[in-house]
Amino acid sequence: MKLFFVVLACFIMAAAFRRKGALYDFDSKATLPLRGLLAIGIILHHLSLTYQFHECINAFRISPIFYFREMGGPIVAIFFLITGYGLSKSLQIKGTSYLSGFLKKRLGKIMPEFLILTALILLFSALTGTVSLSEAAHKMAAGYPPLLNSWFMYAIVYVYLAFYLSALISTSDCLRTGIVLSLFIALYCGVVIALKWGGWWYISIPAVSVGYFTALYENKITKILSVRYMPVCIGACAVIYALMLGHIPGSRIMAALLFAVLTYVCMRLYSIRTYPILVLLGELSLYIYLVHGEILTATKYIGTNKYLAGAIVILASVVVSMFIKRIRGFIESREFRVYSKNRA
Known about the structure:
The chain is an all-alpha fold. It is built from 13 helices and 2 strands. A two-stranded antiparallel sheet has the order 1-2. Strand 1 (56-57) and strand 2 form a beta hairpin. The radius of gyration is 21 Å and the shape is globular. The model has no long low-confidence stretch (mean pLDDT 89).
């Protein structure tokens, strides 16, 4: 993790020595390539936990995948920051009208595929006798969902519900909504800690609040980042914090949040090229997240070389995700044609 902190810090500090220019936007178009990179990053993280990438030269780890071992929380925190940022921006622009059909639209984008994949895994497990429905229920109660690594879906559904309730309670006042949303996030963290679920359930989700208030006070943040020496100060603080990692209470949560913030700063200072492959990966990022865990498990049972397994997982995850996206697109186009015909 320290390596990634230092790399981001160097990029941020280098921005202070460039020719002065306007900061870049952090909208959905700008973050789409970033989401593609993050999707691959989360696969590399789980690969590093599944296989041993410990090759060394003079005690230096030479496998890049090794350095993703501790990057799960920070990577997912960036996803959550983007989510909170988007919710805040949309509420600021649209106000109360944003809540009209909010849950139907948001949950409709993520739930069908998630529910179908979960049902398929439960059915396959029951038919093969690997995990019964009662055992799956016990595992879920212990914080292990049937679909591998799908805890993120439960968390994001909670975030959407919490945001919707917060906006209703606060009558769409942006500041009050953010405060109530943060209280809901704190409640979530308290509950999962009390249940003794894995740290992945709560380490990164506070980034939703960070993203929300980042969007709310973005004008002030932009003024701060526009000061030439600020990137140097931010980068230097990041390096100092990286050196102190592991010696600060709650460092895992703080590291995830700080890494998400540094990524936001870097995105404001630089623009990621919208290469078609990154845009495609960004569009598939949710599906990649949902399917890669089961594919990774399959490669482990096959017993392939770890680097070959990594290539297979990435390629298969992308292909399967494209297939899922095509199916959704086909269904939506059929529904649209039926709707248009009925309207006529």
